[in-house]
Amino acid sequence: MHMSSSFRLAASAAALLVLAGCASSNRRAPVEDRAKPAPVTGVSSASGQAPAKVLPGAENAGKPGYYTVKPGDTLIRIALEAGKTWRDVAAWNGLDNPNLIEVGQVLRVAPPVGETTASGVSTKPVTSPKIEARGLDNKAPAGKATTTVTATPATVTASASGGASSGAASGAASGATPAPPSATPPAASTSEAKDVDEPNWGWPASGPVIGGFEEGKHKGLTFSGKAGDPVQASADGRVVYAGSGLRGYGNLVILKHSSDFLTAYAHNQTLLVKEDQVVRKGQKIAEMGSTDADRVQLHFEIRKGGKPVDPARQLPSR
Fold first, then answer.
1. Which of 185, 277, 294, 295 is 20 to 30 Å apart from 127, CA to CA?
2. Number of other CB atoms surrounding residue 292 within 10 Å
3. Whose CA is closest to 256, among 116, 139, 84, 126?
4. In the chain, what's the furthest Cα-to-Cα distance?
5. pTM of the model
6. How many CA atoms lie within 13 A of 115 on its CB side?
7. pLDDT digit string (tens) for 93-145?
8. Cα separation of 187 and 264, whole Å?
9. CA-CA-CA-CA dihedral for 82, 85, 86, 89, to nearest 10
10. HSE-up of residue 159 (Cα within 13 Å, Cβ side)
């Protein structure tokens, strides 16, 4: 009798343990916990990586008039290579701090046609010499009428073509109907406008040339001299950069002469001009030095539309 009661008590205890185990199992794994979504951490669940940063101007990559920033670029270098001023490039891209650009960022390096740049040079096609006449200093300089970049359209046409009658003759030769004598002279053609746009160059230094232009290798001429020798503006223009922010050029002056042409004067020991200053051909703008160079020298470039051209082909005979 005693053993039968003990057996029944043991069986009841075992049944209670089984029921308790089932209840405990249900509490540990409720259905709603298994369906709970994973917490959002800012990392893409598909790739396991943070979403790629979209840099300013990315939608314009590869389009004409835009440039994608590469490692080592500065705004000054980008502007020089584009034939523009760094102030204009900064303004076109809304850059509050021109020193803050990112690799992969796409910058506008050419304004819409007809827009006036921050430096005051119109960006209309070079077919209206009068627009270019006001681009440098907003006033006509004193001197000869042969300073074609500041002449009126009529004077420019006569100068570029050798006279009004010569211009009419060239128009007839090209198949165009000549205007009657009393009519306003026709606007200069594109080729004539380019000739008008090019300054009357002068030598920037008196020392001998010790390094020549090489396409893709050496972007200008190298002049030797003594520390302190004068460096002169090669043509009338406006200072668009004066400083040492372009690696490899040392103390540098960049002049803008027209919508197409820039000149650069590198390695100076002293700069004698400041940005936005108007200078005249032959004016002393710096003193020769050896900044960012292994000897005293002047590195001189002429750039047309941002592309270096051989100064030896542009400068007059000595």
1. 277
2. 16
3. 84
4. 145
5. 0.59
6. 12
7. 999 888 889 999 999 998 866 555 544 444 333 332 332 333 333 344 444 33
8. 32
9. -70
10. 19
- Give the whole-angstrom CA distance, residue 123 versus residue 105: 24
Tell me which residue has tokens 């990586």: 49
pLDDT digits (tens, 9 = 90+) for 142-193: 443 333 333 333 333 333 333 333 343 334 334 444 444 444 334 433 333 4
Structure tokens that stand for 77 in this block:
């270098």
The amino acid at residue 170 is: S
